[in-house]
Amino acid sequence: MLSNGLSEDDLFSFLSSQKKEDIDYRYILSSMCTLPHPVAVKAHSLFMETNLGDPGLFPGTASLERLLVERLGTLFHHKDAGGYATSGGTESNIQALRLAKELRPSTCPNVVVPESAHFSFKKACDLLCLEIRNVPLGPDRRMHADTAAGFIDRNTICLVGVAGTTEYGMVDPIEDLSKIACEHDIFLHVDAAFGGMVIPFLERPIPFDFALPGVTTIAVDPHKMGMSTIPAGVLLTREPDMLDALNIDTPYLSVKREYTLAGTRPGAPVAGALAVLDYMGISGMKAVVAGCMKNTERLIAGMGTLGIEPAATPDVNVATFVCSSAPAPWRVSWTRNGHLRIVCMPHVQRDSIEAFLKDCGDMHA
Hints:
By secondary structure, this protein is an alpha/beta fold. It has two domains: 98 residues, Aspartate Aminotransferase, domain 1 (Alpha-Beta Complex), CATH 3.90.1150; 240 residues, Aspartate Aminotransferase, domain 2, CATH 3.40.640.
């Protein structure tokens, strides 16, 4: 620490200089996060000091968390779902596997996941001492249900499906996985961290949620396509009280038991997430998703005119290409298979797509 504090002008001059080193969102084509909606920022600022880790002190904020769970549960065809606000998909996935381990005790527990699963499942299995069984993908870059079934045995505590894979934007056949989960009486967790705020608003939604009887838990991140402030994730459970299996004593807090992973939990992004959902409504979210999907289609078509083929036909707004380079100053990413990857988030407007295509054309001329 400094011996003497800085003046406010000097402090914010320094902070502003550091902020300028961040990449401008206009050129970020690789992120599944986006600029927060203005109503999320405004709501966030109203709840900056709130801590959902001690909810008895902040009953109004705690009620917003319950409303957020109810809104998302209703969106996912189960108004009475349980759940709570997490820091994002990683925490939600860890907690889902922690819950599966508690509810399905085994001396040698294993978890069956697709090869496309987010790397948070590796973290979760390391932390929880679970064997992770990675199921190879089919040619369509989805985990096929029959293949997954072959990895299940009496020690399998959880089957995982992904609704909107991080690398290729694919939705696993959750409907078929649900049938397998019911047949084997095992826990089915759906990682819809990205797709959960896309799929319900598509013209033809793909089955992935609690409408399927085998789905036990769902992870969704409002700070992605939900345009909330960071961090804002939610873990939803089919049974309202299911998470009570993870309760530990918290004797000195305003509540005496908690099942959350984090202790201190910010209420501000919860308010931001709820604000966006209530402000946008179903119609507003459909318009946002439709715009992102149209931009994805335009990008794929435009790259095709340049002779650059797609690596997959995505279900959500993630586009990948058989291409080994991209023009500056655009920030793209690359899949583990070496394919160029672009996520058409709300901040990626049509003029950005056209500018990127022009620069690609110039580079490949």
